[in-house]
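Recall the central idea of this unit: under ordinary conditions, the amino acid sequence of a chain determines the structure it adopts. In this exercise we apply that idea directly, starting from the sequence alone.
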Amino acid sequence: MFRLIVRAFALLALLSAAASAQPHVFVDAKLRLHISDAGVFEGIEVTWTYDDFYSMLLLADMGLDRDGDGNLEKSETILLDGFDRQWIEGYQGDTYVTRDGTPEALGAPEGRGTTVENGLITTTHFRAASGPADGLVIKAFDPTFYTAYSLVGPVDTGALCDAVILPADLDAAYTLVEELLYATPSSDAEQDYPQVGEAFADTVRLTCAS
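Accordingly, the structure predicted from this sequence is:
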């Protein structure tokens, strides 16, 4: 009986950790790649549209949209612009570009506009880059899975390149979460929740003409 009780409490702790670590923010992400006529990857434009609940909370916290019509005056939009570009040191911007498994450097985010329509906040930023575009792999994800990104295609690459979106294997992702949680002591499961965000990310593969 004692063992059953211990196992029950361990299971409850595990379930509690899993529930608390579910995504809290949901974002639709669109990507537009800047590629020169010579096939050089010059940067990536990232557009994020936040879910209605998070948008509502943020607008309320900042004291915006006081008339509650889901849209902002120009002066209010100016106050909102840039709220998601104040990145702490080490933050990668939840956009990862690699070639053969090696990360490609991306520049700091440059604002390209903020809008609010029907209560949804949408922001766009640009990150400069340099290097061949062919063979690039791009993913949008939060390693901690606090924010869940849904990649909205197609990916704009211009005329020289084609982008194929490979959907994430969600069954494998959830299996990974379960395996990692069961391998983590129940007392540490909530604090040391495994970084599984990449497992839920779609993959963009780029192919360019020679």
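The chain has one domain: 2-208.
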